[in-house]
Amino acid sequence: MNLPPFHLAFPVDDLAAARAFYGELLGCTEGRSSEEWIDFDFHGHQIVAHLSTGAGDRASNPVDGHDVPVPHFGLVLSMEDWQALADKLIAAGTEFVIEPTVRFEGKPGEQATMFLRDPAGNALEFKAFADMGQLFAT
């Protein structure tokens, strides 16, 4: 599956905090920037933090016993990369919305997942499948 990179622009209320979170903690390379926005390389995808009010909507939906924040964005990683990121975030003392866990265990679409918020309150999900063929399982 060779997909084109996606582009996502999202609001943040502090560019320095966004730079520290996405650049330093998550390891995203910084691209172009101005006093009002920063481009990041999010595993080959372009995400742009825009200085704005109204960051971090706090709605949620129940999914497999957890309140999943909506809206959210993230990545589907290999299980090895997911575990390495989970270990890094735990070591950094990250506060999780949903701690690293396995959901839909023993069912189609079983996945490792974790949710956290950036400093502006935007929700991110990182997930992994032992079998990537289960990504769109019904």
TrEMBL record:
<feature type="domain" description="VOC">
    <location>
        <begin position="4"/>
        <end position="129"/>
    </location>
</feature>
<dbReference type="InterPro" id="IPR037523">
    <property type="entry name" value="VOC_core"/>
</dbReference>
<dbReference type="Pfam" id="PF00903">
    <property type="entry name" value="Glyoxalase"/>
</dbReference>
<dbReference type="InterPro" id="IPR029068">
    <property type="entry name" value="Glyas_Bleomycin-R_OHBP_Dase"/>
</dbReference>
<dbReference type="InterPro" id="IPR004360">
    <property type="entry name" value="Glyas_Fos-R_dOase_dom"/>
</dbReference>
<protein>
    <submittedName>
        <fullName>VOC family protein</fullName>
    </submittedName>
</protein>
